[in-house]
Amino acid sequence: MKRYWVSVLNISLLSSALLTTTALAPVSVFADSPGAISSNPQVSTSIENAVPAFRNVSVHDPSVIKVGDTFYIFGSHLQVAKSKDLMNWDSVASGVTDDNPVVPNVTKEFAEALQWAQTDTLWAADVIQLADGKFYMYYNACKGDSPRSALGVAVADNIEGPYKDQGILLKSGMWNEISEDGTIYDATIHPNVVDPDVFFDKNGKLWMVYGSYSGGIFILEMDETTGKPLPNQGYGKKLTGGNHSRIEAPYMLYSPETDYYYLYLSYGGLGADGGYNIRVARSKTPDGPFLDAEGNDMINVKADKDKPLFDDRSIEPFGVKLLGNFLFQRQIGDPGTGQGIGYVSPGHNSAYVDAETGKQFLIFHSRFPGRGEEHEVRVHEMHMNSEGWPVVSPYRYAGLEEDTAALKTQDIAGQYKWVNHGKEITAEIKSSQTVQFTADGQISGAVTGTWSLEADNQVQITSNNVVYRGVFTHEWEPDSQKTVLTFSALSSSGVAIWGSQMTAMKDQDIVNAVKKDLSIGDTGNVFFNLSLPTKGTRDAEITWKSSNTSMLSATGVVNRPRTGKGDAKVALTATIRKGSAVSSKTFNVIIPQQAVSPLLGEYTFEQKKLAKIAQDFSKNEYHGQAFNVVTSAISSKNQAAAFNGTDSYIQLPGIITDTTDFTFSAWVNWSGGGAWQRIFDFGNGLTRHMFLTPAQHTGALQFTIHDQGRDQSLIAAEPLPSNQWVHVAVTLQGDTGTMYVNGKLVASSTEITFNPKDLQVTEAYLGKSRYTADPFYIGSMDNVKVYDKALTSNEILRQAKEKP
User: Is there a contact between 290 and 280 (Cβ–Cβ < 8 Å)?
Assistant: First the structure.
């Protein structure tokens, strides 16, 4: 994407557009923008495409550069990947370790920056090729909990390295000391020198835009021969932000069609709960002033200094928000599986324009609904609307073959999943609503208004007196595995709306699809209230009837039989209606009786068939399923469960479903190894769980219960002793949590307010974490006991004296 300029060629395109690929189909993406030549419509009424293939990669903060026919992305933690089609990515390097091929001996090569920043990792990198043909990597290291950072440059003859350090260019976070501009460093007005983007303007002049949080986003004039800042600029010129506002990750892209420089920014926090979102402002010159769609000068956008740090409310009205947390929600009866297609905290983008085709791409990382902190790179096409603002296509780029046929109103008529991205900086996921576009230009359903088809498949949508301007495109929809019609549009206040057309269906087909797809989960052991859906796709109605309302109501309320009464059997019937079409589906539900207290489960591993079953010797008979676990003799009279650290674990049934107070007690012989192994991990997905690890990242024994997006933990001073039999126990009583090793208290807290019962445990493991990146437990366990009460310290001590 970034390449040197040759002034004699009189090129007026952005440097990112100088290298092209034949894999990208021609289409005009700047049609109807100011100064554009309207020629190529962007979509067709019917398109046949082969099923696209994707190979995903995790590169946080991806910055793109094209070399020959290959796209490279450089990101944080010295992660690098490459692709020839923006769809299938291969990892080139990852990790700030001395065996990283991009910067061999990186801890020595970048030692000055790492030492200054007091860190062992690197943040978002950016690479550009200058006139000497060499590749210049702008790297940065940051302490993380402060703006103490160093930004430097390294040079290589080859895009994949090896890069050699050319020194630090800027420093920040030098509290009470003279900073780069000759004044005492002040984080409210001076930048955090991270997140660089180095680019050429339309005249071939080199610039670097950078910054994160702290004092805002800055720009420097650069020497195109050395790749370093021109002298006597200090930190350069400020463009936006300040007072610790959560604005970061600047990226500059020039459009020759509109003659604007577009400054992309990420607002919010990058974590799954941080509300990261991508915004843009524009200017006629690379150093501003940058304005948003309402004409607000971005230099005035900053946090309120009289409010707590990182005040988002001060900044969220400003900038054009292109996308944030969203979900094209999958309804019952829709194609595919899961909850739908969407993103959580998408951000830190780069962008690319193909000079030959005019195609424009947004490259960013994103997290995903229900997947915690897992992140992957995504690439979306962008198009210019009639006001000269980029709009982002709703689905990832799939390399579709397009023709030039113009849409007709009857092609557009139909139901759509509609998403309004709003202006908020929030962890909330904006779920889709269903709307109807009619051929006469009306919009009804969850949103009302009008629409009109403009030239080159541009669209104007009006709703609640707000006008949105955008474009219709055809895109690949992953759930249906088909090409669908979509729209993306922006309001004059900088709010994005997206739409995805739904396939037309007859009422009976809708009912049949809902019936086939309808599920209430595992009906063999229903411990908790059921969430019974009342709507299916296309607003199909679902009503419920129970054969035993005292055990299971028609609204899903569960009343478990008392201990000794036996399990309850209930027939739960769903009736599905759409128009005059109707059908029913019956689920046979087993509601287990309440557990025998206080000992819920006891696992002594004395049985011969441990390879398959972990027998529960309590009265509840909560037998577990053993996977690759073997018996290991402790003595001639006692056996233990041995875990290989690779793929062995035990899965238990709903062992703590009624538990408010709690005790976990076990003898363990941990063999050591990587952090975050699990002695136990009980929970429900990634949002509600509790676990005990012999050693976390700082090398300490830790118990954590996680709910409502928060952790409550007990952390010992040391790791669990290894290569010896140790008794370990955790108790919860009221708001007090206590952790014991060999009968001695090692950690306690009176702020453990979450209860095991509230976790609604569906997965209970011994020896395995619910996070796939965590290692399996290696070692042995014996005499594992779980109680629905908190044992006293004397009771724990007595168990600790009973050697296995």
Answer: no
Residue 108 and residue 98 in contact, taking contact as beta carbons nearer than 8 Å? yes
Quote the Cα angle for 454-455-458, to 5°. 55
**Whole-angstrom distance between the N-terminal and C-terminal Cα of the chain?**
64
Q: In this structure, what token pair is assigned to residue 699?
A: 């090398």
Q: Which of 61, 85, 292, 707 is catalytic?
A: 61
Is pLDDT of 45 > 70? no
Verify whether residue 61 is a known catalytic residue. yes
- Residue the block writes with tokens 């014996």: 782
Write the single-letter amino acid at 669. N
- Please say if 707 is a catalytic residue: no
Exposure pattern of 737-758 as b/e (b: 16+ CB <10 Å)? bbbbbbbeebbebeebebbbbe
pLDDT of residue 638: 86
pLDDT in tens, 586-616: 999 999 999 999 999 999 998 766 778 999 9
Closest CA to 453 of 412, 414, 488: 412
Q: How far apart are CA 87 and CA 55, in angstroms?
A: 6
Whether pLDDT at 709 is above 60? yes
Query: What residue has token string 């000497």?
Result: 132
Q: Phi and psi dihedrals of 797, rounded to 5?
A: -65, -40
DSSP letter for 114, please. Answer: H
Task: Render 681-721 in DSSP notation, one character per residue.
Answer: EEEETTTEEEEEES--TTS--EEEEEETTEEEEEE-SSPPP
Sheet holding 247-255, edge to edge: 247-255, 260-267, 277-283, 320-323
The stretch 412-423 carries a mean pLDDT of 97
pLDDT digit string, tens, across residues 196-241: 999 999 999 999 999 999 999 999 999 999 999 999 999 999 999 9
Answer yes or no: is pLDDT of 44 > 90.
no
Name 93's bridge partners.
Answer: 80
Residue 143 CA to residue 119 CA, distance in Å, equals 5
Point out the least confidently predicted range of 73-82, 388-397, 521-530, 731-740.
Answer: 521-530
Residue 783: closest CA among 647, 614, 628, 644: 614
Q: Are strands 430-431 and 326-329 parallel, antiparallel or unpaired?
A: parallel
State the average pLDDT over residues 152-164: 98
Q: Which of 142, 219, 138, 233 is nearest to 180 (CA)?
A: 233
Round to whole Å and give the CA distance between 641 and 781.
5
Instruction: List, as one string, the DSSP characters of 25-52.
Output: PP--SSTTSTT------S--S----PPP
Tell me if the pTM is above 0.85.
no
Per the listing, tokens 């941080």 go with 274
Q: Please calculate the CA angle 780-715-678 and round it to the nearest 5 degrees.
A: 30
Q: Give the active site residue among 126, 197, 248, 788.
A: 248
**pLDDT over 70 percentage in the chain:** 93
Tally Cβ neighbours within 10 Å of residue 709: 11
**Cross-strand pairs, 582:** 577
pLDDT tens, position by position, 711-733: 999 999 999 999 999 999 999 99
Residues sharing a CB contact under 8 Å with residue 295, sequence separation 6 or more, in sequence order: none
pLDDT band, residue 449 (cuts 50/70/90): very high
User: Tens digit of pLDDT for each residue in 671-700?
Assistant: 999 999 999 999 998 889 999 999 999 999
Half-sphere exposure of 496 (CA within 13 A, CB side): 30
CA angle, 409 as apex, 408 and 412 as ends, to 5°? Answer: 95
Give the gyration radius of the chain's Cα atoms: 30
